[in-house]
Amino acid sequence: MSKTRNLIIIIVASLLAATMGVLLGFSSYWFNARGNITSKYTVEQISIPYWFNTNGNETTIYNEIVTPIRYGSNANAVGYLTYTPTEIISVQSYDLNTTYDASMYTVSGNQISFAYNNGMPYLQEEWLDNKNVPAQYNDGSLISANYNDGGGTNNGVHVVAENALTRTNYLNVTYKFDNSTQDLGFTPQSFQPENYPNLLKKLNAGQPVKILVFGDSISVGASASAFSGFEPYTPTWFDQIKNFLVAKYYGGDSSKVTIVNPSVGGTTSAWGVKQTLQSAYDKSNYDLVFVGFGMNDGTAQNNPTLFKSNIAQIITEIRAYSPYADYIILGSFTPNPLSIFAGNHSSYISEMQELANSLNNISVEGYKSGCTYISLYEVSMAILNKKQANNNVGDTRYQYMDISANYTNHPNDFMVRLYAGSILSSFIEF
User: Fold this and answer.
1) Could you give phi then psi for residue 151, rounded to 5 degrees?
2) Is-contact 272 318, C-beta < 8 A?
3) 193 CB contacts (<8 Å, ≥6 apart)?
4) How many CB atoms lie within 10 A of CB 13?
5) pLDDT tens digit string along 117-154?
6) Which phi and psi (to 5°) does residue 157 adopt?
7) pTM (two decimals)
């Protein structure tokens, strides 16, 4: 990696960390409010992966995020669904407060388009290039980064935005598609209840469970809208898991599920090892442990073997204090493939799967402690590839906005929901 690339990463990461610090200052408020502000979704809509929402050959996707882009002076803004719909159920605003009449838009194949000035939200291409951004979106949290993608309207400069620019200009589309003629594009997470002997035993007995979430900014909760204080207040992936377990096993008693989260944004697995060995957080008596690093390791192109060693060290150390817990190694979704944050993320997949297999079903005083690898990389890349493959505008760079809240390396509400659903489906039979 060049010195220039390293410098850019450090500068941008520092700016992002500063922004995240501001967000973290308000996070306790949103945590306390989450139980009252998620009524726009049912538990089923928010947490069950769409590939389980099937009836015969029909699969329903709830609130897939689509970012309409207006290129140059084109009359229409266009966006792309992952699959070609057989029925559009609803097209709604980002906050789910407005439903747009079918007369306002056109759907052709997997493309949705509409007149750019008809009142529906869209992004002007140059805004994402941090050029001529309207004042209402330029609130001080826009960061420029040179993605060197050879295109755009501003010499390859693009925004890293956690603000209204990227959060208020997308659509939530609920639709059905024919699963007999369209494949998912990826292999869904398999159901592996045998990897969760202790967790499931306690859940089925109605006993309280304690969960550790430890990792980087995605494990902190970025960029679920509830975490950041935006409608429709979609909970973080781990809060979605808590909500699901509370509803399914505890009759709504949220006190039965405790989550401890010492995660910090911008960190790598090496930091995780240091914190763990120094006992910088509570390591004792967990029933489920998430170890979720990799986004920043991959960006820095850290050696896959070293990354594997770090994750193994973290789990081994925690296991000494929580011997009966079941463990999840959480693989991150893809960063923007055209950004400076793209790295060697895909090289971690086989290493993490091998590690999880080696740490699974470890005998501890007559008990088995499970370990499962759950990766969102393949899911996110498949969705991105399907959208890009059917793009007939000729510019596929901006489809990443459909899975990322900051156009760089944080999942948006749709992707956050797929995090929760993929994790749940590994031990819950939908």
Assistant:
1) -145, -155
2) no
3) 200, 427, 429
4) 19
5) 999 999 999 998 888 999 988 877 778 887 766 677 88
6) -80, 130
7) 0.91
Read off the tokens for 20.
């995240």
CA torsion 266-270-272-273 (nearest 10°) is -170
Strand 326-331 to strand 371-375: parallel, antiparallel, or no bridges (unpaired)? Answer: parallel
Which amino acid, 197? P
174 residue type, one letter: T
Q: What is the pLDDT of residues 71-117, one digit of tens each?
A: 999 999 999 999 999 999 999 999 999 999 999 999 999 999 999 99
- Residue 403: both structure tokens together: 């899975």
